[in-house]
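Methods, example record. To illustrate the input and output format used throughout this study, we show the complete record for ABC transporter substrate-binding protein. The sequence lines were provided to the predictor; the line carrying structure tokens was produced by it.
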Amino acid sequence: MKRRTLLGAAAGATTAGLLPTLSRPALAQGNARVLRFVPEGNLANPDPIWTTTTIARNHGAMIWDMLYGLDDRFEPQPQMVAGHELSDDRLTWRFTLRDGLFFHDGEKVRAIDCITSIQRWARRRPLGQTLLARTEEMKALDDNRFEIRLNKPYSLMTRAFADSCFIMPERIAKTDSFQQIGEYVGSGPFRFLRDEWVAGSKAIYARFDKYVPRQEKPSFLAGGKVAHFDRVEWIVMPDSATAAGALQNGEVDWLQRPDFDLLGMLRGMRNVKVVVNDKVGVLAMMALNHIQPPFDNPKLLRAILSAVKQEDFMAAAVGAEPELFHVPAGVFTPGLPMASDAGMEVLTRTRDIAKARQMVQESGYKGEKVLLMSPSDYPVQAAHAQVAADLFKQLGLNVEFASMDWGTLVQRRSSKEPPDKGGWTAFTTTYEGLTVADPSSNVPLRGNGAQGWFGWPTSPRLEALREEWLDAPDTAEQKRIAAEMQRVAFEEVPFMPLGQLYYPTAHRAELLDIVPASFPIFWNVRRA
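The corresponding predicted structure is encoded as:
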């Protein structure tokens, strides 16, 4: 072995009566050690492996630690490991855990916990699926070391482990990855108080006293994770104006994602700050069901794509904040290395609704129902769904607009049945920019059919190009392959990109040292 990595509106009014537990400002109640936070939505399911929702990931990052974490340059850095060794043939990796790692039940973190957690995680994540395909054996060498032997080099190993690969106790990680876990014993800086969790209302966390942070400055998901608050309370407030009023009155400390149309008012509030910590943004998109009519017809999908005007989708969501979105956006995150102009004329040429309507007719569309799901508690995605519904109607599609809360949508999107039997045809969503930045983790771009993301497109061309990208010798070749993948995607339409947008966040001015990130991070933040 050769050492390769060293071990090292109503908003202005009081919310009293609406929120009896928040009837007075938090500081006035003597809760300086309590952080009250309004998340983007409801934590319907707290298993971040079983579900791909960002809120479950945010929850996961609080209570479980990872072997590696991305720093602010998006490079993986050791987190739970002290470091690793890599053989000269790049086929054998050995990892050593750092000292002082404990689960929330007081048990020591062992190598077998890591192996079992990796195996469960890997079945649900593209980077992990590639790892499994290239693995000959994973085994624990002792309680502090484990080894992975490959049949083919995998240069993205540490990057994969930084992709929400949360380390759980072996008994929990043995749960089938397509079933929900029943315990939430973590390994990170906060404990999940499951007995106080009320889905649709609140989720509560407490600082884990035995967590030993790395002795490094925090940098995105890497470095030292120091918890300054004894308790973090996620308070679900579906009405954004009510949440803004609670922030103004000091009843909550932090709004993850205020509505865009409230930003002007929030900026005018005393002791409130509005900031954009996310410099990468999210990619808005429309997911399409490729296994049920009528969207199993590529000609119909191309006809619809020819009429998509990304500016309309962005303006509907962002309104008078044009600096918070970017168009055009392809299938990779604009501004990052794999983004390109390849095939972008599909999105940038002048929209011709009449021509697109003719293309729909010529595609063989027979008037089948298009069931479009819209998340009622996510304003941005709901606005995008409204624009999509209007576009579908203009094109002559038989549209049924189905509004539901995000938790219900997440459950329904897993159905492969026809719409009239509980299935669906399309829904709008967003994906974090880092996740769809390149082919390795761009889940909506996969063409692996039944094993893929919701919509289940099958594309041997996309899968072959993805494999080429993973084995590319340099960045130039990766960019060439990514450009070709974008051209193929505009032909086969696994999903429809709708634009890139940046979410602002709002918090009380006394909150300091919030780690800049695309989602809320609760270590390092403190109250002045």
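Annotations derived from this record:
The radius of gyration is 23 Å.
DSSP finds 15 helices and 22 strands in the chain.
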